[in-house]
Design a protein that fits this description.
By secondary structure, the chain is an all-alpha fold. It has helices spanning about 15-20, 30-45, 50-55, 55-65, 70, 75-85, 95-115, 115-125, 140-150, 155-165; strands spanning about 130, 170. The chain contains 10 helices and 2 strands.
Length: about 190
């Protein structure tokens, strides 16, 4: 039986279908490494499709030290140039430099809150939000504004909204999708 999925999901791309079914809008992993990975990938998505980024995910993992923010924050100009010349990833110098910068700030947030998930939860109270008709919200506006104030780049409200969907804080499966939920089921 064919499952109905969100209209954006390219059913011909196995990686994308798996991402939709098992990761997007699922609060599966709140580890600092995973949350950093998704923050960086969403930043690289700006102006592109997430499918493009997802297809390059393994190359990004290799290039960005498996998204170990402690290593990424120490990338120097030589490493940034190496990444800029890496044809396997999106070669945008501003985004690469932002990833290094954001890793430093990410580390400071973890020191302040104990984890990045705790930081995010300080805005939403550890709740999952169910909505599927937005590209940004008051929540994404607040987090975006706070991250920008701290000095992060490529963290506008639309990017942060997509990030919150990606990590499962916002559940946005379309009404027709087999994963659609109106509210938390306990």
């Amino acid at each position: 039986m064919n499952k109905i999925r969100c209209s954006w999901c390219n059913l011909k791309n196995v990686k994308y279908v798996s991402y939709h079914d098992n990761e997007w809008c699922h609060l599966n992993d709140v580890s600092d490494r995973y949350l950093f990975e998704m923050l960086i990938l969403e930043g690289f998505q700006a102006g592109l499709s997430f499918e493009c980024i997802l297809n390059k995910r393994e190359a990004f993992r290799k290039a960005f030290a498996n998204f170990d923010y402690n290593i990424v924050m120490s990338f120097d100009e030589k490493k940034i140039l190496e990444l800029f010349n890496n044809k396997e990833i999106v070669r945008n110098k501003l985004k690469i430099k932002a990833a290094v910068n954001n890793a430093k700030i990410y580390s400071l947030i973890i020191k302040e809150y104990g984890s990045f998930y705790n930081y995010l939860a300080s805005f939403c109270g550890y709740k999952i939000i169910y909505e599927n008709d937005k590209t940004k919200s008051v929540l994404s506006d607040q987090i975006s504004e706070n991250l920008k104030k701290r000095g992060m780049k490529f963290v506008g409200s639309v990017i942060i909204y997509s990030y919150l969907q990606a990590i499962g804080i916002i559940n946005s499966h379309e009404n027709e999708c087999y994963l659609f939920k109106k509210e938390r089921v306990e």
